[in-house]
Design goal:
VC0802-like; Alpha-Beta Plaits; 2 domains; three-stranded antiparallel sheet; alpha+beta; 125 residues; 7 strands
């Protein structure tokens, strides 16, 4: 699964322009996370259509990058995330970002952006 990180100017309307590009292209946002500094907003997205997202972002002229993220299902109870992060830390894998993809019937599925996604995937398979 790909995470797209898009940089937009931190001003009114900038993020809306990004969402409008996606909406007009029929792209659904499955997960989103944002943060900002004084000048730039950073939007992290997982969408239902990676190829079209890549194409539309490229044509838009927006600055973006892609990275592989893992989808990890956790039992929805205290300590489960801590166990997964401990497993990664023990083998030197850094966690860059985490956000929720879905929560249903006692299971929380998260997106994990890590320093070595292939190694992490082997650990969790």
């Amino acid at each position: 699964m790909k995470e797209f990180t898009i940089k937009v100017e931190n001003k009114s309307g900038s993020i809306h322009n990004l969402y409008d590009i996606l909406a007009k292209s029929g792209i659904n946002i499955d997960a989103i996370s944002t943060h900002h500094d004084e000048k730039t907003a950073h939007v992290r997205l997982v969408t239902n259509d990676e190829e079209t997202t890549r194409e539309k972002l490229s044509k838009s002229g927006l600055t973006f990058s892609e990275t592989t993220v893992l989808s990890v299902a956790l039992n929805d109870r205290p300590g489960e995330l801590s166990k997964k992060i401990k497993t990664l830390s023990a083998v030197g894998i850094n966690v860059n970002s985490i956000y929720v993809l879905e929560k249903s019937k006692g299971v929380t599925t998260i997106a994990l952006n890590v320093s070595d996604p292939e190694k992490a995937a082997r650990l969790f398979s």
